[in-house]
């Protein structure tokens, strides 16, 4: 504020109705801002109050599961705990409950030992308090859990507007409060008459600034926003049933709020993908405009969106289930708010519908499908009017590449599909990436089988980084590898950033082949037909050991009210399964599918929606390659894989369709395997591939194998397995049929 300015000097003592009205408007705006901040704070405190008893129970349960011997770790082995254990205090929880008096009564335990034991136990207790997470069990709701869900429901219902309103109200209050204090004499005639010359000048200068703030706030619609959010926060939950139903539908938003309010956010380094500090700091300072976005972001998701904006051409390699699509939409919304008008999303046909739905639901952006017979007309319309064009890899080849700067962001989903630079689809994507100011490659499995293929993806984005990513970096191990690709590559894992994700239990179901199964298998081996060997266990369904076990799992899931997804690589296996389930003891549950590669993309999504919407237990049959990409199947809590797959990424993707952010129940995965033969050999092969993937795509300190360990084609692996099985069984007709 400027004391003694000309306008202020001339206006001292001459305060009219306009100034008084302006101060009154500023006062009302300030009160509304303070109210919404207070209403939000009370809603947050209600969540904390509901969370505390649940958290205390979880801490107690965790401490009761920690053996007292763990106290040795805390004290580097200095404690003698034998007599403590013999006295019945076998866990850290029991020790804390006993207290110093009870411990002092144990023979051979002196006061010094008691003090050391309790100090160590308290240190463990503090660590548990900081790390234990509360899981909300939708199948066994009880009063304390219901109270927490209802408290969260208020904030979830208020939506992203609540956070936006609170942030803007806090910023406005900080600026407006001191100005209103200075302008107090201008609120009435008497105040200005009694004020000294300096106070009068400050009051009039403050009125000028208040006018600017109030006009700006009213143009932005802040008074209405504050009022609406306050109403939403004060309304409360309509009923516990409504809150529970909403939790099942939007569990991601509930858990996101819970993590934020409880302070149990993921490790900062993990949320930032363990990027080097210089890259992470540049990303942190990147602004993120939310005015075109309809969804709140988790901390790691906001960082991911900022990474794309700050680094311009990148690969987002988050593990499946972490919301890569939401992060992409956040980037699109930010760029639209900055004035960019044209965007392009390229994806497999199977997820076209999912992309259009997500963009429409999560943003204010216009979206157009550029696919099908009218795609060229749609493309011309997109060129003229702008928005987000969503197309397939094949359709993109038929569109002219954009001019420089014309497209604000190119998003390539399932980008590992363009890892081979010799294919036309890869060449088309590379041309578009070169012409676009920003490019986002999205893939949960960027490594696939060869590090060299990952380098091909990087080359489309940054030739310099790709060139720097030499064999030396690969051979040294993943630390050097991750550092080399940090400017263009960000990856986070579920266990690092999703503390609320329900457990994933994976069971290998080994079955002894029946005599009939063995006969079918021998015929396939004799013919050298690798694919027939893989599905031989289902080809004589009347006496199939695998099929019997599959039916048992589906029946048990149905009795527990659970939905099941059955994956197989083979259409004919799915047909066998469908017949068996339709005619056996599981015939009561509705069945959906088979969802195969021949089912149109839009129909695939409808099948999944119908499956999710079916009340009670249901079964979805799906070809693993068709349904393992892009489609979300959180309604399922049981997953069955009929046979092991050639690549670990195929199985990972399929399981992640169910076990992903938004899932509210533990997921049980059953992989059906036959002892001996092709299944056993493939499982061993998968384990080796998975270890290499972990070494390079995760943050392992040392790579567990060189690239040569996986530089063998799937065809060669299949041929090797067939020959080994022919030798083991002593059968051959001299032919080998590899996967096609």
What does this structure look like?
The chain is globular. Helices cover 57% and strands 9% of the residues. It has three domains: 264 residues, no CATH class; 231 residues, 3-Layer(aba) Sandwich (Rossmann fold), CATH 3.40.50; 215 residues, Rossmann fold. It is of the alpha/beta class and 740 residues long. GO terms for molecular function: ATP binding; helicase activity; hydrolase activity. Keywords: ATP-binding, Helicase, Hydrolase, Nucleotide-binding. This is DEAD/DEAH box helicase. InterPro entries: Helicase_ATP-bd (IPR014001), Helicase_C-like (IPR001650), P-loop_NTPase (IPR027417), SNF2-like_sf (IPR038718), SNF2/RAD54-like_C (IPR049730), SNF2_N (IPR000330).
Determine the number of helices (DSSP H or I, runs of at least 4 residues).
35
> Mind summarizing the main beta sheet?
7 strands, parallel
* Tally of distinct domains: 3
User: Are there runs of 5+ residues with pLDDT below 50, and where?
Assistant: 1-13, 697-712
- Cα-atom radius of gyration: 31 Å
How far the N terminus sits from the C terminus, by CA atoms, comes to 77 Å
Reading side by side through the largest sheet, how are the strands ordered? 3-4-2-5-6-1-7
What kind of oligomer do you see?
single chain
Shape annotation: globular
Mean pLDDT: 84
Sheet-strand content, in percent, reads: 5-15%
Q: How many strands appear in the DSSP assignment?
A: 13
Helix content: 55-70%
> Pairing-aware structural class of the strands and helices?
alpha/beta
């Amino acid at each position: 504020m400027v004391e003694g300015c000309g306008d202020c000097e001339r206006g001292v003592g001459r305060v009219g109705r306009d100034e008084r009205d302006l101060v009154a408007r500023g006062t009302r705006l300030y009160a509304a801002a303070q109210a919404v901040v207070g209403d939000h704070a009370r809603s947050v405190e209600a969540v904390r109050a509901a969370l505390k008893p649940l958290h205390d129970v979880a801490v107690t349960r965790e401490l009761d599961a920690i053996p007292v011997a763990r106290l040795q770790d805390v004290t580097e082995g200095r404690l003698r705990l034998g007599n403590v254990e013999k006295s019945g205090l076998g866990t850290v929880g029991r020790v804390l409950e006993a207290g110093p008096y009870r411990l002092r009564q144990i023979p051979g335990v002196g006061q010094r030992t008691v003090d050391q034991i309790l100090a160590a136990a308290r240190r463990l207790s503090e660590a548990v308090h900081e790390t234990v997470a509360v899981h909300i069990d939708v199948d066994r709701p009880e009063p304390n859990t219901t109270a927490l869900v209802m408290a969260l429901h208020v904030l979830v219902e208020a939506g992203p507007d609540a956070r936006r309103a609170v942030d803007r109200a806090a910023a406005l209050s900080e600026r407006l409060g001191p100005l209103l204090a200075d302008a107090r004499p201008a609120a009435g005639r008497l105040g200005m008459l009694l004020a000294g010359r300096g106070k009068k000048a400050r009051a009039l200068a403050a009125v000028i600034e208040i006018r600017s703030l109030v006009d700006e706030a009213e143009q932005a619609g802040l008074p209405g926003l504050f009022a609406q959010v306050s109403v939403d926060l004060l309304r409360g939950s309509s009923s516990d049933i409504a809150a529970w139903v909403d939790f099942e539908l939007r569990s991601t938003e509930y858990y996101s709020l819970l993590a934020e309010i409880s302070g149990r956010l993921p490790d900062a380094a993990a949320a930032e993908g363990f990027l080097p500090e210089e890259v992470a700091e540049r990303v942190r300072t990147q602004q993120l405009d939310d005015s075109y976005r309809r969804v709140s972001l988790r901390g790691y998701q906001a960082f991911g969106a900022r990474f794309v904006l700050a680094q311009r051409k990148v690969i987002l390699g988050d593990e499946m289930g972490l919301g890569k699509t939401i992060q992409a939409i956040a980037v699109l919304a930010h760029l639209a708010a900055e004035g960019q008008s044209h965007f392009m999303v390229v994806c497999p046909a199977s997820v076209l519908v999912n992309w259009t739905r997500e963009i429409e639901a999560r943003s204010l952006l216009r979206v157009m499908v550029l696919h099908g017979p009218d795609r060229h007309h749609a493309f011309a319309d997109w060129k003229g009017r702008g928005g987000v064009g969503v197309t397939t890899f094949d359709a993109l080849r038929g569109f002219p590449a954009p001019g420089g700067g014309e497209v604000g962001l190119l998003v390539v989903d399932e980008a590992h599909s363009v890892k081979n630079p010799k294919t036309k689809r890869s060449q088309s994507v590379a041309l578009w990436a070169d012409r676009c100011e920003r490019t986002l490659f999205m893939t949960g499995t960027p490594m696939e089988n060869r590090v060299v293929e990952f380098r091909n993806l990087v080359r489309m984005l940054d030739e310099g980084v790709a060139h720097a990513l030499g064999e030396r970096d690969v051979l040294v191990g993943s630390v050097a590898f991750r550092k080399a690709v940090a400017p263009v590559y960000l990856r986070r894992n579920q266990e690092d950033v999703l503390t609320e994700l329900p457990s994933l239990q994976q069971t290998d179901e080994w079955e002894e082949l029946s005599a009939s199964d063995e006969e079918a298998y021998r015929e396939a081996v004799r013919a050298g037909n690798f694919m027939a060997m893989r599905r031989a266990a289902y080809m004589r369904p009347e006496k199939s050991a695998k099929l019997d076990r599959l039916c048992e799992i589906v029946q048990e899931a149905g009795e527990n009210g659970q939905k099941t997804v059955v994956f197989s690589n083979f259409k004919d296996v799915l047909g066998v399964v469908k017949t068996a389930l339709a005619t056996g003891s599981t015939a009561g549950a509705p069945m959906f599918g088979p969802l195969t590669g021949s089912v149109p993309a839009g129909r695939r999504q409808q099948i999944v929606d119908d499956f999710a919407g079916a009340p009670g237990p249901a079964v979805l049959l799906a070809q693993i390659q068709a349904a393992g990409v892009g489609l979300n199947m959180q309604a399922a809590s049981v997953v069955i894989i009929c046979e092991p797959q050639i690549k670990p990424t195929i199985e990972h993707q399929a399981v992640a369709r169910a076990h992903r952010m938004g899932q509210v129940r533990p997921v049980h995965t059953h992989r059906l395997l036959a002892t001996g033969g092709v299944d056993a050999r493939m499982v061993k092969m998968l384990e080796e591939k998975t270890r290499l993937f972990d070494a390079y795509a995760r943050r392992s300190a040392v790579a567990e194998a060189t690239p040569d360990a996986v530089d063998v084609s799937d065809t060669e692996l299949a041929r090797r397995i067939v020959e080994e099985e022919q030798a083991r069984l002593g059968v051959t007709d001299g032919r080998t049929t590899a996967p096609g």
